[in-house]
Amino acid sequence: MLLELIAINVRGQEFCVNVKDVREIRGWTAEARIPNAPEYLRGMVNLRGVVLPIIDLGLRLGFAPSEPTPRHAILVAEVDGASVGLLVDAVSEIFKANDEEIQDVPSAATDVARELVAGVISNDKRLISLINVANLVPSMAKAA
After folding, report:
1. Which residue has the higher pLDDT, 109 or 72?
2. 3-state secondary structure of 112
3. Which CATH number do you get for residue 54?
4. Alpha-carbon distance 96 to 90, whole Å?
5. Which residue has the higher pLDDT, 115 or 141?
6. Model pTM greater than 0.70?
7. Which domain holds residue 121?
8. How far from each other are the two terminal CA atoms of the chain, in whole angstroms?
9. Do 91 and 62 meet the contact criterion of CB atoms below 8 Å apart?
10. Under the phi-then-psi rule, with left for phi > 0, alpha for psi from -120 to 50, and beta for the rest, what region is 58?
11. How many domains, in total, are found in the chain?
């Protein structure tokens, strides 16, 4: 099966998400903080009258926190019927990959890494990790 994927940059690493998981791509907007939220949950923004939680994707993946600039982007994704914003450093391209091109996450990776990364694509001499969007927000998955 042919997948259409959006390539993103997070802390100098390439990742991708399935186009079907993304509703829109927006420029960075400053967020309002949420008290006692997990560290990776930066806060929330108003998206046309709807409160949208913003996840620092880099922090969620185990990298250092981001200091957003106007060059950063927010991918508005659907997780179990709810919208969530994913803060990324940049969106680089849309590309296609076959199921056969997606390799398993190495067994040496942690359980958390295997939960958040659905597979790895070797594409044009680069490795791109496919993000499992459904597993980024455990509390949203449990609430649905």
Report:
1. 72
2. helix
3. 2.40.50.180
4. 18
5. 115
6. yes
7. 2-143
8. 28
9. no
10. alpha
11. 1
